[in-house]
Amino acid sequence: MILTGHARLAGVMGWPVAHSLSPRLHGYWLREYGIDGAYVPLAVKPERLASALRALPDLGFAGCNLTVPHKEAALAALDEVAPEARRLGAVNTVRVRADGSLLGWNTDVEGYAQSLAAALPGWSLDGKPAAVIGAGGAARAVIAALAGMGAAEIRLVNRTPGRAEDLARALGGPIRVHDWEHRSRALEGAGLLVNTTTLGMRGQPPLDLDLGPLPRTAPVSDIVYVPLETPLLAAARARGHPAVDGLGMLLHQAVPGFEAWFGRRPEVTPALRDFVLARP
Ligand code: ATR
After folding, report:
1. What domains are defined for the chain?
2. Residue ranges around ligand 1 (CB below 6 Å)
3. Which segments of the chain are extended strands (E)?
């Protein structure tokens, strides 16, 4: 690691923050490119978020990432929020501008689109509907990415239907809400299935979903990455579907922030994946 008095500084604000993989991820790139800089975990309590953000320019930080539970609350604490982040209601990346003001935006949309493109070269929805399970924060980014890829129809299924309706209203576009009880029907003729819920994550029950109606050519994507192979992805692979794990989204969403703070667009490589997965 190169660290001089000129080092560029960034970090991730979360509460708790110890679980975050971002310091490991950005640390890998800093070493890989020999950059004089540091990316550190910043344990910031929810009630201290605004003052912690305000301190960034005073401390000479180039910016930061935001993770749970700060992504939504940050909107009110920043000088400017990019329109897409405002629409999503969440900011995950902040840059300190030359005049000390704070700009926030959301890189999860681009991160999800890039992770699909990297995992499925040459693939497209080709006019077929996409089925999305879940209507939380992650679903918003995934749905915005799918809309940006030209999805003609996005079928949205959530245990709490009101949240799916709210999401459809907030994002607009070709979203159709399907009911949770008959969720496998949303898979009929679909060109992609995405799980954005926490189901399948270590310590959570698996997503209970009959993949029968899903055409076998349709990729199945899970945004969960602990474990990398969720029960959903294992079932999908067993049926012959291309399977896309959730680590790609985490790695690709980090690219624009790193570029903004450290001045170099970093690459997502298999070696980076292996390094992040080999965390102690
Ligand atoms: P995030 O913002 O990280 O996506 P979230 O807002 O808590 O997290 O959303 C979690 C998603 O997982 C929601 O779609 C949630 O469904 P509800 O809106 O009905 O809560 C879904 N989820 C979590 N546990 C679930 C369970 N046991 N069964 C079905 N859906 C579940």
Report:
1. 8-107+249-277 (3.40.50.10860), 124-241 (3.40.50.720)
2. 134-139, 158-160, 163, 196-199
3. 8-14, 37-43, 63-66, 80-81, 93-96, 102-105, 130-133, 154-157, 175-178, 192-195, 220-222, 243-244
Q: What is the pTM of this model?
A: 0.96
Instruction: Please tell me the distance between residue 136's alpha carbon and the centre of ligand 1 in angstroms.
Output: 6
Mean confidence (pLDDT) of the chain:
97
Extract the residue ranges of the chain whose pLDDT is less than 50.
none
Instruction: Return the pLDDT at 276.
Output: 96
Give the integer Cα–Cα distance in Å for 120 and 219: 8
CA–centroid distance, 160 to ligand 1, in Å, is 8
Ligand 1 atom nearest to CA at 140 = 4
- Look at residue 280 in the predicted model and tell me its pLDDT: 80
